[in-house]
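Translate structure to sequence.
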């Protein structure tokens, strides 16, 4: 074999070995990435299963959950629609409406007035006799809890129980609502921890919600 042919053969062998090695390294990297991705998926899947089990137990161990909706007109802080300012719930919430509130073991409602800092207005609180609000955590002692506040002209009629609707959730609805509450709590905690503001309002929280009637009476309006 001539020197040229021998040289050509050696070059061909070298190139082949290099390509084989490079291809092997690339395959190894790809396999490693796939294995890592699979492990992450397994870890997340296990975490999701644990969270689902926690939620399932939470749903089983807590009292019945109720949805509180309302329509109260004459509320100064509500959006003007058709010439009237009304605070009204809607599912799903759209512009100008508000979300309902979810309550443990609801058992009656009442509206309570206290003096607003503007003399001509009442600060009117909607209270539900219950074991507290879902977004405040586990059920508490039964009493009246504040679920919504309104700013109303004193000349307007006081709202009544007819302005409020109490709906018991089915077990499946309760499961869905609790799952969403868990997700919202994670987002809220992250926002408060990292940015110091509420993920819901974008504002710095000014105090706790779902006050008892006595706690509410002591707050300024």
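Result:
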């Amino acid at each position: 074999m001539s020197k040229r042919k021998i040289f050509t053969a050696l070059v061909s062998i070298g190139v082949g070995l290099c390509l084989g090695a490079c291809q092997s390294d690339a395959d190894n990297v790809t396999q490693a990435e796939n294995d890592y991705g699979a492990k992450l998926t397994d870890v997340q899947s296990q975490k999701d299963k644990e969270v689902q089990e926690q939620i399932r137990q939470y749903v089983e161990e807590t009292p019945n959950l109720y949805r509180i909706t309302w329509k109260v007109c004459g509320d100064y802080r509500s959006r003007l629609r058709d010439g009237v300012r009304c605070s009204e719930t809607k599912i799903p919430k759209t512009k100008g409406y508000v979300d309902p509130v979810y309550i443990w073991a609801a058992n009656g409602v009442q509206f309570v007035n206290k003096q607003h800092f503007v003399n001509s207005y009442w600060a009117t609180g909607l209270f539900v006799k219950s074991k507290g609000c879902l977004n405040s955590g586990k059920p508490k002692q039964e009493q009246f809890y504040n679920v919504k506040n309104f700013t109303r002209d004193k000349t307007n009629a006081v709202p009544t129980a007819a302005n409020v609707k109490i709906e018991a959730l089915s077990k499946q609805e309760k499961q869905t609502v609790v799952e969403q509450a868990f997700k919202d709590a994670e987002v809220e905690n992250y926002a408060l921890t990292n940015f110091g503001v509420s993920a819901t309002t974008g504002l710095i929280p000014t105090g706790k919600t779902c006050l008892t009637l006595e706690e509410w009476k002591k707050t300024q309006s």
